[in-house]
Amino acid sequence: MTSKVCISFAGSSGLGGFPAYPPELAAQLQAEFPAARISLIQDPAQRPAELADAEVLFAVRFSPQDLQAAQRLRWLHLASAGATHVLFPEMIASDVVITNSRGLHGIPIAEHILGVMIILARQLHVAYRHQLEGKWPRREMFDLYPTFSELYGHTAGIIGLGGIGLAVAERVKAMGMRVIATKRRVEAVPPCVDEVLAPEGLARLLQESDFVIVAAPLTPQTTGLIGEQELRLMKPTAHIINVGRGPIIQESVLVRALKEGWIAGAGLDVTDPEPPQADSELFGLPNVILTPHYSGLRSEYWKHATEVFRPNLAKFLRGEALDNVVDKHGGY
Q1: Which domain holds residue 53?
Q2: Which of 112, 239, 245, 251 is catalytic?
Q3: Where are the alpha helices (DSSP H) in the chain?
Q4: Is 274 one of the annotated active-site residues of the chain?
Q5: Are 310 and 303 in contact (CB under 8 A)?
Q6: Which of 3, 74, 90, 154 is most exposed, with minimal Cβ within 10 Å?
Q7: How far is CA 216 from the centre of its chain?
Q8: Is 195 in the active site?
Q9: How far apart are CA 141 and CA 136, in angstroms?
Q10: What's the domain count of the chain?
Q11: How high is the pLDDT of residue 132?
């Protein structure tokens, strides 16, 4: 029997403000997989009816109402690397297999992080603020001299050495940095990493790093992982960058650390809550680079996302085990 495959990124069921999934990519999948019936859902109102007989759903959002509508669903493929937003109790208890798009976002996020690190090290954000005011701030920038730095010869500490963390490690190592990382399971040490620590080594990573990069998934173990004790372990000249999930860092404590000088600054692509409250102090802190959770965006996004989905669809139709399967209880 033909398997129905739904692709749903329209309106509120997808990425708000993001380009719709291209019909030509859906047509290419249909031509490549004639044994499947590819259905591109372009009207969110049609989603419940379309899901009724779907075996496969390629999406980024999935709710308890979706699960109730999708009685025949066997596999949910997410366009994101994170999966905690779909791990509600009914989904965890179901037989639906969840896969994620691990590997899709490594390159853009790693380049985003590298850019933020250079901005913070070279105080480019300060110079840009003066530019917007029509100033040539040579004296002001020279007065900041003790706070200037470079990446070369300094230490990057990566919390979470998955695909994104590894992509970061490759790039900062090429900049001449020492790289240490924590990983849940310590296996072989990649050439671009000087030392891999078990999670218990977090304190040493924080103490030794000039840049701390949070690239871990949000799980019960990582929620609130970085609080007052951890931030006070960092050097006063160090920066923290978060591209994982906002709740990994205790935000009220981070604001105190930034205001009181426990650390030098932060680059945040994720916050808690998200978006921040309108009166959040993060907006006004001069030592913060705040970006609205877009570090994973890349050119030809849907083409690359489909390249992750395509081989798994072939495996599904052949009855083979899928790649990138999410541990529903582990959270990733």
Answers
A1: 3-104+298-318
A2: 245
A3: 23-32, 47-51, 64-69, 89-93, 106-121, 124-132, 138-143, 163-174, 202-208, 228-233, 251-260, 301-318
A4: yes
A5: no
A6: 90
A7: 8
A8: no
A9: 9
A10: 2
A11: 96
> Do 135 and 241 fall within a single domain?
yes
Give yes or no: residues 197 and 127 share one domain.
yes
Shared-domain flag, residues 163 and 277: yes
Residue 134 lies in a domain: yes
Do residues 113 and 99 share a domain?
Answer: no
Residues 6+ positions from 260 with CB-CB distance below 8 Å: none
Phi first, then psi: give them for residue 257, nearest 5 degrees. Answer: -60, -40
Residues 188 and 61 in one domain: no
pLDDT value of residue 2: 87
The active-site residue, picked from 90, 274, 300, 307, is 274
In-domain check, residue 43: yes
**pLDDT (tens digit per residue) in 207-252:** 999 999 999 999 889 999 999 999 999 999 999 999 999 999 999 9
- Which residues of the chain fall short of a pLDDT of 50? 12
**Of the listed 293, 298, 304, 310, which one is catalytic?**
293
d(CA 204, CA 284): 31
Is 281 a catalytic site residue? Answer: no
